[in-house]
Each structure stands twice: as structure tokens, then as C-alpha cells.
Amino acid sequence: MLTPLAVDLDGTLIRCDLFSSAMARFCLARPWNFIKLLSWLAHGRAHTKARLAALYPVNAAALPYNEALLAWLREQKAEGRVLALATAFDRTGAVAVATHLGLFEQVFASEGRVNLKSHAKAARLQTAFPDGFVYAGNEAADIPVWRAAAAAVIVNAPAWLEARAAREFAVERVFPR
Fold it and tell me: pLDDT for 123-140, tens place per residue?
């Protein structure tokens, strides 16, 4: 049986960052929204992500997907591998992407109070997959998740991170920039 594969969203499955895009959109709409954004951030990143996701629902069909990764994920799914979407973005946007693609059996995402990034994501995936999982990611915040995983899939990562991952982790696959 294949080890379940958890896939990050921003910068990995898609070629953008939904949180950064929503913050920019919010502040550019009305410059004084920056003050409101700061007050939301005072309540935490997960809270801010939930507020922005409510204002700017994700149009999953219009996202810039990493087509090479998506093709491989379809192959993995056809071989019977369990796929999960694991993102620090808000759950509503993550569910929209998962529903649109029809590939993921589980969705792990930030939900109002918990920002599912780095160590929090690693812990959540270890709980969900006690027999092990493989994780596909692209940034330094993913190092704790790769550390908890049975193997790493490196996607669209900077050269230094790709080299570090190759030294520190079992790397199942690389999708270069």
C-alpha cells in the first residue's frame, strides 16, 4: 500500500499565495483597510485568513495550478494513493480547491483559531496518518513537516531548500522551479 501523500497549496499545488493575494486585494481596495487588517492580525493569522476568505471566496477554476504536479497527482490517485490537501490557508478556500480538482480525500487547513503551518501542520498530519505520510511542499516553513514525514516531495522550491531537503530527508520526487 502506498504511503498517503499530503500536498501543500500555496506555491506548491498553485503558483501563487492566496493569503498574500487577498491581503493585497483588501488593502488596495481602500488604503485605510490596512488598519483593519492590522487589527485582524492582532487576533492571529488564522483569524485574518478566515476574514479575508469570507470577503474573497476562492475561484478554484481560475487558479494557476502547477500542471506537472497535478498530472503526477492524478497518476498517484489512479494507483490508489490516498491524497490530502494540507494548507495554512483558510478551510473554505482549501475545500473549494479540493472540490474543484476531485483528487483529495481529506483537507487539512487553518480554521479561525489554528494557523495550520509548519509545526502545527506536522502535528496534524502525524495524528491523521500515524503510520506515516509523504509531504509535498515548497518553502522553509515546510521543513518541520518534512521532518515528520516518511519522505519529501519538493515542488517549486529555491535551490538552497532543494539541496537542504536532499541532504536531510528521503526525497521521493522533485518538481524543479
Answer: 999 999 999 999 999 999
Domains of the chain: 5-16+61-175 (3.40.50.1000)
Nearest to 108 by CA among 131, 127, 132, 81: 127
Give yes or no for residue 113 having a pLDDT over 90: no
Crossing angle for the helix pair 45-55 and 18-29, to the nearest 10 degrees:
70
Residue with cell 494513493: 81
CB atoms within 10 A of CB 130: 8
**124 with 115: CB under 8 angstroms?**
no
Cell numbers found for residue 27: 488593502
Is residue 152 within 8 Å of 25, Cβ to Cβ? Answer: no
In this structure, what is the dihedral angle of CA atoms 83, 59, 143, 79, given to the nearest 10 degrees? 20
The mean pLDDT value for 110-116 works out to 90
The strand order across the sheet containing 134-137 reads 106-110, 83-90, 5-7, 134-137, 151-155, 171-175
